[in-house]
Predict the 3D structure of the following.
Amino acid sequence: MADTSTSLDSRRRFLAQLSLGAALAAVAGAAAALPQSEPDPMKTTDSAKLGYAIVGLGKFATQQIMPNFKDCQHARITALVSGSPEKARKLAREYGVAEKSVYSYENFDSIKDNPEVDIVYIILPNGLHAEYTIRAARAGKHVLCEKPMATSVEDCQKMIDACNKAGKKLMIAYRAHYEPFNLDAVERIRKGELGKLRAITSDHGRPVKPTEEKADVWRVDKKLAGGGSLMDIGIYALNAARYLTGEEPEEVTAQEFSDKSDPRFKEVEDNIHFTLRFPSGVLASCTSSYSYAEVKRGRAFGDKAWLDLDPLSDYYEHNLKIGDKEGKREPKLQEGNQFAAQLDHLAECVRDNKTPKTPGEEGLKDVRYIMAIYEAARKGKAVKV
Ligand code: NAD
């Protein structure tokens, strides 16, 4: 059966789901339709936007996050923090950041005196998230922190405590929660379009190449990464199983295999398969790997229909397919800018004093489940969570 959604319908759904300024901006045509002389109500003046300091100018920060500020309605880059002054100065010029707002890791704490910075976005190796979140909170700044939140449950709790103590927001950058295809999938499941949900599968893999990719060097270092493919990308499968079901798992099982003669896997795991059992009886079966060819997909199986997100967690070009006894269909959805949406979401939460959709507690839950998955793999038996 062909899907009858018009692009207007999908636009409306997209707007309703996100209710974010960024989403409004991302819908092509809305602004263009306004007469030239009228001020655009969607546009926030630059000085009214909240200021973000970007901590860590690595691959993800420079190639994805910073360029996508262009679509933000409520957020702008006002400071940079880096160990490389030359790189930071070059990027500061490119993004119009004042030279006095470029910090090193050593003088980062003096960011407390910079009124242009409202939010600090931590995009450092996982093992450094806790330290910089706590320092940012102590400097009186709100925090957006990359996934995984930290490398231990204890560190996650310390981050939450530090932000609470400082009276500052803490959000974990789970961008899929701000991505229209994932939001649409969740809505379809909640409305019962698949019938009774029975199972989830999700696979996330990519080859790590620390000899070729600088960003992969710390990924195979246990102290900086906290773990291997599960911490880095398996977390998308774990988190998706939770938001697709809307439930918390009760029990996990896992098996891990890493070729210890491969220098990449001396400290962190390569292949891991884990299952999550949810209270409703849904079973999620997930894999992650540092030696698969790239894959980032998720599927949900109900007793009436199935739904396929492939990719589920990519940066761009998402796909959603639904299948039932009448055949397969592909709803026409509008691709959004999940990066801008999440940056704007936290800015709006700060401005309106609201709790972010993906607060520190959400990050802590995943780290807790990750630890249970590692324990299950180690012990070779199911672990209650
Ligand atoms: P990267 O190696 O490219 O960037 C890390 C940055 O941290 C570099 O600029 C590096 O110089 C700096 N750094 C500071 N101290 C360091 C130290 N002691 N060792 C190593 N680097 C140090 O890595 P990345 O791929 O940009 O990942 C950074 C973070 O972003 C990680 O937490 C990762 O999980 C997360 N990430 C998220 C997504 C997503 O889609 N949400 C995608 C990629 C990465």
Remarks:
- The longest strand covers residues 197-205.
- The pocket of nicotinamide-adenine-dinucleotide is lined by residues 56-61, 83, 123-126, 128, 146-147, 173, 175, 214-215, 218, 224, 232 (CB under 6 Å).
- The chain has two domains: 8-175, 177-339+367-384.
